[in-house]
Amino acid sequence: MLKRVTRLVPRACQLDPGHFLHGGPQAPQSLAARLDDQVPDENPRAGSHPSEDDPVRTFNEACLMVRRPALELLRHLDDTNFAHPAVRYVLYGEKGTGKTLSLCHVVHFCAKRDWLIVHVPDAHLWVKSSRGLLRSAYSRRRFDQPVEAANWLKSFKTANERFLSQIKIQETYMWNKRESTEKGRPLGEVVEQGLTRVKNATDAVGIVLKELKSQSCSGAFRLLVAVDGVNALWGRTTLKREDKSLMAPEELALVHSLRKMVRNDWHGGAVVLALSQTGSLFTPRMACLPQELLGKEGFDALDPFVPILVSNYSPEEFESCIQYYLENSWLQHEKAHTEEGKKELLFLSDANPGQLERLCAYL
Amino acid sequence: MATPCVSCGAAAFYRLFLGGRVSLTRRQGVWKAGAVELQTGTGFQILRLRHTTGVTTKKNVAALRRETYTVDFIKKQIEEFNIGKRHLANMMGEDPETFTQEDIDRAIAYLFPSGLFEKQARPVMKHPEQIFPKQRAIQWGEDGRPFHFLFYTGKQSYYSLMHEAYGKLLEAEKRQNQLQAKGLFSEKTETKDLIGSRWLIKEELEEMLVEKLSDQDYAQFIRLLERLLTLHCGAEEEFVQRFRKSVTIQSKKHLIEPVQYDEQGMAFSTSEGKRKSAKAEAVVYEHGSGRIKVNGIDYLLYFPVTQDREQLMFPFHFLDRLGKHDTTCTVSGGGRSSQAGAIRLAVARALCSFVTEEEVEWMRQAGLLTADPRVRERKKPGQEGARRKFTWKKR
């Protein structure tokens, strides 16, 4: 399903419940060509790989369904008091119910409102097989992941171009004997440094996150931290050290910095997290509750949080999803238009968005 | 092998056979396996036959002919059967006078329990007439003259039957002509018993006549009987009925489960289903929204594969009741596909109680109510699997 959600290019639409906000029924790997002038910072990502089954290209637009959990979250976000510590919202639910897309919806909402977005599309990718693992220069115990860090920096840059020049760092950072970034330089330079010197990418990520956290309290901007597959941060990894022993997630620098980010010891923003069993390692298939997926450690770290359950489609949502497919001529079967066909689809997919999408894929 | 000429005639006989038949043929002839020892004596050689393995596979000509049972033999068997029946009744503690064949069957099944699948291979005790095939007594008298006038046709019973039937046909036609001449001819209604019965098949007719028939003979006979039926005469009905067998209608055998009512007054019905080694029990509620719970888990999570969910959908979709019933099932054993099949059968059977007779018949014809008899076939020795043979190597 959703492998790499990057950004959604929205069409200008109001956010009414039940209304079909043009987002995407499936993960848009590349963005639509239409740019919105209201959101100039979201540009098509040059580095992503558009896949042939990408509905963004098929439908020539990226559409999302506005659903109740997302709306609830947005209402909460509207009411946040930025003087208080950041509230953590956790989206959980069965497989395929739409947690990741709700997250995207929230990200898009905040982007439109000019928040600074720290979005990790899939934290599971960081703990699974990655080729380059280096010993961290900053801390002896930890390991760097240059490839993932560089990718993330790229996406961060494209998402938040505006802010990169506005925010100034508050400390001097020495990369190595020759290079350093002075205090007062824009954050963009740190990002550039990370991108050009891939070896320092992980440290650059750490610095960016630290700076953002400390500066969001000042009130210059609102910070949204959105992480998908957050149970990866407290699970197990499949990465091995040089002596072939398994690594714990704490030993990865990226995971470490992200964990610090997700703590609620800062204010001026919000943290929205989504759990995911699909990419997680060593978790049973039926696990979907926060308790089971996060484990004791994760649960304690994230406690207190606001859990938001994402469930299957309601009858109206199901109906509107079918209508969307029919309008875009996605369903070619002659029975798809009829009532019996719809009932069959409802039964077979049990109103689960993921299942329905898979079924309609070959209809 | 090179055998020198020996004077002994008997030895020559053996030599012929040994020289001729080397390959093992069971078809004809007699061969004796034997190792022949050549002993060089003083001047001439003697062949001494030594039997190592005395395998004699002689074609038993008598056994290939049908076993003939004499009338005395059959009579003796009948007496023994009756005595045995009384002994059995005594053993079971029942009254020997009123001991029927079903009682005998039950007693034998109790005393000799058998796990064989083939019902005809199990121990059976029946009247000798049902066990020994019917045989014809000697057809000719002491002077060599045959009893039946049609003996020299070769199929005397068949031709006599045809003769009789044709005679009846002619009589019926004559009667009809007479009635028509008198003007008393009335159209009779169709005989109703044609529907629930069928003609005897050729094997059954052969068994009845104790004679071999050809396909054309059989067809001719059936045509004659049908022609007789078209004439609608009362006297011939019994004659024709002898050659018809009734056919039971399948669907009448189904029991329809009664609808039960639980505490809230909601109507529901329970039934079971099996497939391979999976057993399922389904409770279908009459009014609902199409939710299904299997072992307490939602069916979408229990059967992640679409194929299994399609199996569950089949009974509801067939009856057009997709979103109308709630179901709760428990299933155990088997694999995912057989569990799905077992639940499907259980649900179809449970739905029978909410549905009209006609729809039950449609379901039966669609195969929803039949338990799938396929089980895993046993692996045989000498083969790699049930059917797969070992790789054949030419050399």
From TrEMBL, chain A:
Matching InterPro entries: P-loop_NTPase (IPR027417), Ribosomal_mS29 (IPR019368), Ribosomal_mS29_met (IPR008092)
Locations listed in the record: Mitochondrion
Could you say which protein family the record assigns here?
Answer: Belongs to the mitochondrion-specific ribosomal protein mS29 family.
- Species name: Enhydra lutris kenyoni (northern sea otter)
Q: What's in the keyword line of the UniProt record?
A: Mitochondrion, Ribonucleoprotein, Ribosomal protein, Transit peptide
SUPFAM superfamilies membership: P-loop containing nucleoside triphosphate hydrolases (SSF52540)
Q: Which gene encodes it?
A: LOC111138895
Main subcellular location: mitochondrion
What are the record's GO terms for cellular component? mitochondrial small ribosomal subunit
GO biological process entries: apoptotic process
Kindly list the GO molecular function terms attached to this UniProt entry. Answer: structural constituent of ribosome
Protein name as annotated: Small ribosomal subunit protein mS29
From TrEMBL, chain B:
Does the keyword rRNA-binding belong to this entry?
A: no
Listed under GO cellular component are:
mitochondrial inner membrane; mitochondrial small ribosomal subunit
Top-rank lineage group of the source organism: Eukaryota
Q: Which UniProt keywords apply?
A: Mitochondrion, Ribonucleoprotein, Ribosomal protein, Transit peptide
**Annotated InterPro entries:** Ribosomal_Su5_D2-typ_SF, Ribosomal_uS9, Ribosomal_uS9_CS, Ribsml_uS5_D2-typ_fold_subgr
The record's Gene Ontology biological-process terms are: translation
Q: Which residues form a coiled coil?
A: none
Output this protein's name. Small ribosomal subunit protein uS9m
